[in-house]
Specification:
Helix content: 10-25%
Largest sheet: 7 strands, parallel
Order of helices and strands: EHEHHHHEEHEHEHE
Oligomer: single chain
Strand content: 5-15%
Number of strands: 7
Distance between the termini: 50 Å
Radius of gyration: 19 Å
Length: 286
Amino acid sequence: MSQHFFDLHLHPAMKTLFKSPAKQRSAWYTIKVADGAFGHALGSQASLGQIAQISGMNLICVPIYAPESAMMQQSILLLGALLYGKEIDLARVKSLGNNSIDYQEIHKEERTQLFRKPDPGDGNFSKNKVKLLRTWSDYNPADLDTIHVLLSVEGGHNFYGLGNDEVDTAAMLQRFQILIDEGFLVLYITLAHLAPNVFLNHAYGMKIFPPDKFLPLDDGIALKPLPIAVATSKKTNGYDFFNLAHKNGIILDIKHMSLRSRRQFLEHFNNLLLLSTFQLLQGKLR
């Protein structure tokens, strides 16, 4: 009997977002960059074309994720764009880094490429259909010609507004509600990620880039407006996001949280099914 596999976290379309929309390829296309100096990090590691070649794997969980602007400002990515311009657009990387492209637009582009049919140059795949699940009953384990997709959310920054504005947290919460109302199956939410956001403090984990834009700020899970937003902010409350997720059956992922954020979270949600997709084992009490 063949062994079935489930991938809890992969990004089939993310690398193509480093190109302008007109030049983006479908998520089936495997980007091949001879970037040994970068550890092959710039090429595809989980394209749908690569997934289609894995026997017995027909269920994946794809995070809703736009690369943080802090990440896209790093010189290593700008250098990669200069060296491998065929697959990485320098102007696009700069736009992703300077907030001239809204995170919400990136989400739309990613979903377009994820559900686009393979182009002739992408390869020939017997497993060539993608189905976004609405309920668990939509999943057919015996259908090995279809890649069934669950969603998750990787980072509270994904709900920032135009220009990646981090002030109106009520509007951010509404964007989360809109995602829920779409009716697709969201398996889990990870509110913290690699750069600071307004909802909670994260654990410092971005060791390959200079630390200035990735160091933790503030103190645990936010309960009040942060200094940058005192004049115009709605109340910033990280618990609101967790409560909305829990109310709608979305598992809460404690990945990337700082030590204090984790302690506060576990005191508040002490009898829930939780998830830690991958976790740092140390952190400063902040």
